[in-house]
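User: Please predict the structure of the protein below. I'd like the answer in structure-token form so I can feed it into my own downstream comparison script.

Assistant: Understood. Taking the following sequence of 485 residues as input:
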Amino acid sequence: MELCQLTAYQLHEMLMRKEVTSREITESVLKRIAKVEDRIHAFITLTPDVARQQAALADARIQNGETTPLTGIPLAIKDLICTQGVRTTCGSHILENYIPPYDATVIEKLKAAGAVLVGKANMDEFAMGSSTENSFFGPTRNPWDLERIPGGSSGGAAAAVAAGECIASLGSDTGGSIRQPASCCGVVGIKPTYGRVSRYGLVAFASSLDQIGPFSKDVRDAALLLQAICGHDFRDSTSVNVPVPDFTQSLVDNVRGMILGIPKECFREGLDPEVESAFREAVRNLEKLGAKTVEVSLPHSEYALAVYYIIAPAEASSNLARYDGVKYGFRAKGSFDLMEMYKETRSQGFGAEVKRRIMLGTYALSAGYYEAYYRKAAQVRTLVRQDFEKTFAHCDVLLTPTAPTPAFKLGEKVDDPLQMYLSDIFTIPCNLAGLPGLSLPSGFSKQGLPIGLQILANHFQEEKMLRAAYVYEQNTEYHLRQPAL
């Protein structure tokens, strides 16, 4: 097996035994990128020179005994996380040539850990999408079937892990943008509790929902990467100052005594039969391993999608007002006055989906409609959160499918926004409530497409989520399969 196909902890052990160097691992990843990237298009920007420099530094650190589990490990970063001196586009024409003058907090932490950056991963423009088809730079393709989407909006980061173009990666999750692509690409993805990971340096889409989280080949790597990026940050006012546990201590092969809640609302219209079958089989497997399952109800979850598409566009319309062609980013040429320059810059700089959501959000916040839409949505959001609070009073974690269907074909839903939005129907309630969520492989369709299992936990209880996921993974083999490229 090639080095690029191994996990971070396997490579870390080899580095510690001096069986391999970070430079050799990095060259293996860069060779893989050269082989498959023209078919996958997981990256917007590649940074081979930076990667080689960081790999050399990592090897020096290892020689000096200054190592962490991520020292010398090549990673990809979703292209809306600021990287000093490296282009950060958000998948948008309006930031096509933007180079941040500073690092996001998570990038500072990864650099301190000695990780290696191989590139910035493709994404839906400003994280608005479920298929990565909304990128100004063109779509990413699913490594399991090149005619299908990788999920979104972090499709590039998920596809890069599945294709061996990096060892692990970082994405962001506003309504399912880590978990849904993890499901589509057959990898593990974690959306942490809101406030667990600093958002400083994450370009904002919807500030009350956005969270940075890891993609990886298995649960152990996800725990290691999550460990590296967690922690309080005074530069992010929503960062919560709570202790960060050692997540690897949760990786024990035992779920005896755990109570797993199964929301009855997840068996709904639109759920693909193969996804439902894989989900029921996953529940039976965990029961056989000693967990107890109970049926629960999240009665307000049926309103979650509608609530999300009021709150998220409202926040986006405010956050994206800064892109006016004056301070930074793209500016339209040929305008005769300031207002015309504003209009032309935003008309030409944003794609269709971003403009649709800005208009939705602006309408929801406008005079005369705020009370009817935004205020009402905020009230229902509270009810969604209270549903989870009641459920977690007697359950350790909740299980649902991650997405209602396996990956669909490129172009299949681009002209039907509502059908596209329904791809996130199982992931959005978690974001509205600020909960942690994880997706891991739980089966394959008859067409060979990955299917994901979603595990949700209460606030700051990522350990329970990781424990259930690790036990399931250790007793199945879905995570070991790799796409033929």
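That's the full token string. The CA atoms of residues 310 and 374 lie 6 Å apart.
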